[in-house]
Amino acid sequence: MNNKAKLFPLIAIIFFSVSGGPYGLEDIVASVGPFTTLLLIILLPLFWTIPEAMIVAELSSTYPVKGGYYRWVEMGLGKFWGFMEGWWSILYSLIDLSLYPILFTMYLKILFPETSNLHIYLIQLLVIWGCALLNILGIKKVGYSLLIFKLFILISFLIFMFLGFSHVSGDFSVILKSANHFDSKNILYGVSLAFWNFIGWDNSSAVLHEVDNAGKIFYKALFITIPIVVFFYFFSILIGASIDTEWHNWKFGQFTHMANLMNRPYLGVVLAIGGMVMCVGIFNSLLLSSTRVLLTMAEDKLIPAFFAKSHKQFLTPHRSIIFCAIIYSALVLLDFKNLIVCDVLLYLIAMMLEAIALVVLRNKNGEAPTYFKIPFGNFGMYFIVSITILVILLVIAINVISFQFTVLNIFFASLLLFGGVPVFYCIRSFNNKALS
Known about the structure:
Order of helices and strands: HHHHHHHHHHHHHHHH
Distance between the termini: 42 Å
Helix content: over 70%
CATH superfamily: Amino acid/polyamine transporter I
CATH architecture: Up-down Bundle
CATH topology: Amino acid/polyamine transporter I
Strand content: under 5%
Structural class: mainly alpha
Largest sheet: none
Number of strands: 0
Number of helices: 16
Radius of gyration: 21 Å
CATH class: Mainly Alpha
């Protein structure tokens, strides 16, 4: 029986690895206004998404290997940097994934505001362990479930845009001037948050070995997903900004409020449910990729062999999935808002290693067979990699400027960024002793 994912489920997996729909853009509008938000939605794909996707497309088409981004860095830069890539990616996933069960219950409270804290935690556990079970059953079932989730979200927003279009006057002068009414200092937060809604194009590469004809279809799925994300981001904000002009007051769950302003309460309920669907979708997708990295690192003896065991029937890393589910069951009780900056930094540094690995691997194996290669030869590759690294350095600078330099935050940031170094050398020493 073929349990591998095909093109359309793969598109859904990539969609939820990056986006999940326009949810989460509301805070950007509240920070910098609709005009700057729309401008960022246009510019970021040009200067970040397309270059990042091209790097991932070439690597995935040339090296469709288990572990994806972790293995590419290990192949190009050696075991130490491969370990650090895995270390940062796992930490990034731990922080990131723990947020989505919390967001799920926040959307739930829009519909049921009287839900008690105990019930909220029980529901969060249900989300975590339900997703864990689905992941154990395999990528095929995850992919098709995410395809249904994606269609639900996109159809909901198509209805929102269709019904909301009558509220668009055609005079966009107010939106164009909106940037004048927002504090310029907020641009740091706005850019960081907008950037956060466009990262993650490499996440799904960790499951390349579970994709049917991965080298041929993964890059296609990437480039199909990009215009879908940009289209729904742009027009949802454009129409939403025309419906609800109290932009300073936009907050979490604002699309439901817009539907109520349109006198469409049932649409508001659907959009709130869509928010919950988004959380489950992203959690499933990122759990899928992060546990495969654990599996691959365990096979390389960089983490305990316990994680290298796969389910006999479903061939999935069930031990890694169960371990992560236990960790998330505890993490949802904590407040991770102050670690979001570290989360972004971890992802960006890991992505920089992938860009450098592409250069090394192209120079080393320039004639390797592939389905996709960044055009215009080495010039094209260096141009794309340079843009990617420059954008990464810019966003890192923005996040450092906006970082709250408390003793506790500095301690956690140092632990996350550099904690993997002594861990790697301890593991290497242990492995050397075991072999001697």
